[in-house]
Amino acid sequence: MSVRAPIVAQRSRLVGLSSVRSLPRRTVIRCQNEPSPSPAPKPTPKVSTKFSDVLAFSGPAPERINGRLAMLGFVAAIVAEAASGEDLFAQLANGGFPWFFGTAVLFSVASLVPLFKGENVQSKTTGIMNENAEMWNGRFAMLGLVALAFTEYFKGGPLV
Question: Between the CA atoms of 92, 97, 99 and 103, what dihedral angle is there, to the nearest 10 degrees?
């Protein structure tokens, strides 16, 4: 009785390449459980807290602050328009500008404080409430606020 070597691979039908049919009898295969060196953790990039870096064109603050203000402004404009029947321009003219200015300053400062403390924008990202969703929501709110202003201007009155 002859002992056959184990079959390792067969001919591949997809490519048509022949592969090794069997191992020679003298080949010894050993499996060693050696701990693989764990990759070194990536160092987190140090966040600059300089005023010029935080408020740079591609910095972490400008688009985020504008998006947050646009989200707040769009919702406030629609709610105030539904409640009072005034369009966006009438709301600003009838005492809404001080509220707009105060809210803009408050939200801007509240957005800048963590950045000047050196917090990373991605550090507070969890689940669906992440920085990417905030950026896209802010972009759509900016577009919505501009679209609301143009629509009310061309329509000549409130949207709702």
Answer: 110
pTM for the model: 0.65
Amino acid (one-letter) located at 8: V
Q: How many helices (H) and strands (E) does the chain have?
A: 5, 0
Instruction: Give the number of other Cβ atoms within 10 Å of residue 81's Cβ.
Output: 19
**44 near 113, Cβ under 8 Å?**
no
- Around 35, how many Cα atoms within 13 Å sit in the side-chain half-sphere? 3
Burial class, 60, CB count within 10 angstroms (exposed 0-12 / middle 13-18 / buried 19+): buried
Smallest CA-to-CA distance from 68 within 115, 31, 117 is with: 115
Tokens read off for 92: 């600003």
The Cβ of residue 67 has, within 10 Å, a number of other Cβ atoms equal to 20
- pLDDT by 10s per residue, the chain, length 160: 555 555 555 544 555 555 555 555 676 666 666 666 667 666 666 667 787 888 888 888 888 999 999 999 999 999 989 998 888 888 888 888 898 899 999 999 999 998 888 887 776 677 777 888 889 999 999 999 999 999 999 998 888 7
